[in-house]
Inverse folding.
């Protein structure tokens, strides 16, 4: 609230390992970076992102997501989905749709999601997409867990070879 000053500035991601990402109006996030540095944060910086993800400014995208998912027949998954806004497994299709919409503006509870999955016996994690930030954070959250980032065609080919 100190950084917001009437604008949006909220926790977008609780990544674990002392890493929290904030999102919102650029000026408010810039103030948050300066406040964090002044209060002794080890590291505080602006991230190069294309939009203010996981905050109230994404409400139009959440509305579009709700409309699109409202036209989609979502089936019960074979394996429960860990909703990042709940940090808990869900398998009811209506609940999945609700939480997918919420995640557009809600805080990603990555640390708690990993803890919940690890407690349920998950030890192998795969990060699909560009980058490997979450794979790196995994090691700080779940003892004994292993992670693999798969973000390029070469990564997919290497994974296939390793599994052969």
């Amino acid at each position: 609230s100190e950084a917001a000053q009437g604008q949006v500035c909220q926790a977008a991601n609780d990544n674990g390992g002392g890493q929290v990402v904030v999102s919102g109006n650029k000026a408010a996030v810039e103030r948050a970076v300066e406040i964090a540095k002044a209060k002794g944060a080890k590291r505080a910086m602006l991230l190069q992102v294309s939009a203010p993800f996981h905050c109230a400014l994404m409400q139009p995208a959440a509305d579009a997501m709700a409309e699109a998912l409202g036209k989609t027949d979502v089936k019960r998954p074979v394996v429960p989905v860990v909703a990042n806004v709940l940090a808990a497994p869900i398998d009811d299709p209506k609940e999945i749709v609700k939480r997918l919409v919420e995640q557009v503006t809600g805080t990603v509870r990555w640390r708690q999601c990993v803890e919940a999955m690890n407690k349920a016996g998950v030890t192998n994690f795969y990060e699909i997409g560009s980058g490997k930030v979450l794979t790196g954070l995994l090691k700080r959250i779940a003892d004994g867990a292993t992670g693999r980032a798969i973000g390029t065609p070469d990564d997919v080919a290497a994974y296939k070879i390793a599994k052969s």
Q: What stands out?
A: The mean pLDDT is 93. Residues 26-38 form the longest helix (13 residues).
